[in-house]
Amino acid sequence: MEAVNNEENRDKPGSELGYESIKQLIKDGNKTIANLPEREVEPAQDNLFLKLSGGNIISEQEFIERSLKENQFWMRIMMEHAFALRIPLPNEATKYIKKSEDFQKSFEKQLHKALHETAKEFKAVKKLNEESINLLYEAAEFKEKVFKDNVEGKYRGLFWTMEAEHIRREPLYVIKTLQRLNKRIERPLREDIIEENEFFLKIMAEHGAFLSHFLDMNEDELIELARLFTTKFKLLTLQARNIEIEPPTKTAILSHLTIFRGATITLHDFLVEVSRLAGTGEIRGVMDPNLLGHVTREAAKYLSVLDRLEARVKQQH
Ligand SMILES: [Fe+2]
Ligand SMILES: [Fe+2]
User: Fold this and answer.
1) Which ligand approaches the C-alpha of residue 203 most closely?
2) What is the pLDDT of residues 176-214, one digit of tens each?
3) Is 185 in a helix, a strand, or coil?
4) What dihedral do alpha carbons 73, 81, 177, 298 form, nearest 10°?
């Protein structure tokens, strides 16, 4: 009975647990904290994120190889985005259709430079990166406009808002990657692991969502599979954010990377099969087989990022 009364008194002004008592309690608490002995907190020795919190400078050779690879992959992707954007836009978005064609040509040129015209030496590669960054900024600005108009319903067509947001996000990622490369910076392990995985896992989830909407309404089984991939990759995106909580030991990080790899290999194989079926006309829908190739290559790119991350973790003792 007494306990019940105390509970009731708590909210009453002027009671023994009122404002003054709370102030006193805080004061006492502060005194206790002030009297605690000084202790140095040792970081857990097996926490790889703390151990490698400084980042590195990569060698000139690595800079050249990685820069060329990134350009050769992403300039093609950006060229295809321009195509993906142009195809589903309706007539009222003519100005965007024309601009997309221009971007398609510019990225094709830049891809050619990255593949055939850039000498494998520091200065030339740095210049290539700078040019790509400038072009990517222009493309990102353009995609931002297309996305905003989509959100505001200024045009309709078969261009989904999520797709507009997705292809707006990818050039921003590439800009950051090339900027870091041009400074020859390898990020601290924590940023590298969390940000790369979050970016790619979210992308994979969205590819599943696109596919489920591009297939014909009768393709129930494939639509269901595409949705399952979306759900799975959404969960994995959250898992990537939580890696640092565990704590991130070498074993824990490697086991997360193995899980991400397994899911991505399955998605990649599924996309390869869907591309084949779409190419032979065995399945129907509104997707262009070229764009199925695009998302399949992005899954393969993520697998190569996982290779690099895994190698980086494994070399730590
Ligand atoms: Fe893409
Ligand atoms: Fe994508």
Assistant:
1) 2
2) 999 999 999 999 999 999 999 999 999 999 999 999 999
3) strand
4) -50
User: How far from 95 is each of 91, 162, 186, CA to CA, in Å?
Assistant: 9, 21, 40
Which numeric CATH code is attached to 56-186?
1.20.1260.120
Residue in this structure with the two tokens 């700078």, named with its chain if needed: 130
User: Distance, CA 76 to ligand 1 centroid (Å)?
Assistant: 9
Q: Which CATH number fits domain 188-317: 3.40.1190.10, 3.40.30.10, 1.20.1260.120, 3.40.630.30?
A: 1.20.1260.120
Say how many Å lie between the CA of residue 59 and the centre of ligand 1: 29
CB 135 within 8 A of CB 105: no
Phi/psi for 58 (5° steps) reads: -85, 160
> Which ligand has the minimum distance to the alpha carbon of residue 107?
1
Q: What is the Å distance from ligand 1's center to 77 Cα?
A: 6
